[in-house]
Design a protein that fits this description.
There is one protein chain. By secondary structure, this protein is an all-alpha fold. It has one domain. Helix content is 74%, strand content 0%. It is built from five helices and no strands. Helix 3 runs antiparallel to helix 4.
Length: 169
C-alpha cells in the first residue's frame, strides 16, 4: 500500500508540475495583437468596410507618390548629366536653360502629386458619416499645420515644388 501511495503521489506531483509549468508559459506569452489599424481608421472610428476602402485609396496614393519621386530622381539625374557636359563659360546659358526646364518639370510633378492627394481626400470624405467627417477635417488641418511647420512656420501656402510628400492620413 505504501508503494502504491508513493507512485500515486509522485504521479500527482509530476502532473501538477507539468500543469504549473504549462500555465506559466502560456501566461508569459503576450496575446497576439490583431492587425494594426491605421491612424485614420482609429481616429475616425471607421467601420471595417470603410477602413478597407480608405486603405485602397491611400495605397494608390502611396504607390503614385513613390513613382513620382522615382521620376523626379530620373529627371535630376538627366539634369546632372547635362550639366557635366558643360565645360566652357559659353555653355552657362545652356546650363540655365536646363535648370529652368528641370524646375518646370518638377513643379508639374508636384502639381500632379497634390491633385492625387486632393482626389484621395475627396474619395475618403465620401466614405464618412457626419461624426467621422468632423474628425477627418481636424486631421486635415493638423496635416496642413505640420506642413507649415516643416516649411519654417509660414502661414502662406507653400509653393508646389517645395511641398513635402503627403503624409498619407
Amino acid at each position: 500500500m505504501n508503494k502504491t501511495r508513493l507512485i500515486v503521489s509522485v504521479a500527482f506531483l509530476v502532473v501538477f508540475a507539468a500543469g504549473l509549468t504549462g500555465g506559466l508559459a502560456l501566461r508569459a506569452t503576450p496575446p497576439k495583437p490583431g492587425p494594426e489599424r491605421s491612424r485614420l481608421a482609429r481616429d475616425l472610428n471607421l467601420t471595417p468596410e470603410q477602413e478597407k476602402q480608405a486603405c485602397a485609396i491611400w495605397e494608390g496614393m502611396r504607390d503614385a507618390g513613390r513613382s513620382s519621386w522615382e521620376r523626379r530622381d530620373s529627371l535630376r539625374h538627366d539634369r546632372d548629366e547635362k550639366v557635366r557636359a558643360l565645360l566652357t563659360e559659353e555653355q552657362k546659358a545652356s546650363y540655365e536653360s536646363i535648370l529652368k526646364d528641370y524646375s518646370a518639370k518638377t513643379a508639374e510633378l508636384s502639381k500632379e502629386r497634390e491633385k492625387r492627394y486632393q482626389d484621395a481626400v475627396e474619395k475618403t470624405k465620401k466614405l464618412l458619416n457626419a461624426d467621422q467627417m468632423k474628425k477627418y477635417e481636424e486631421l486635415l488641418k493638423t496635416r496642413l499645420n505640420r506642413e507649415r511647420w516643416r516649411s519654417g512656420g509660414s502661414r502662406e501656402p507653400q509653393k508646389s515644388e517645395e511641398k513635402p510628400a503627403p503624409s498619407g492620413l
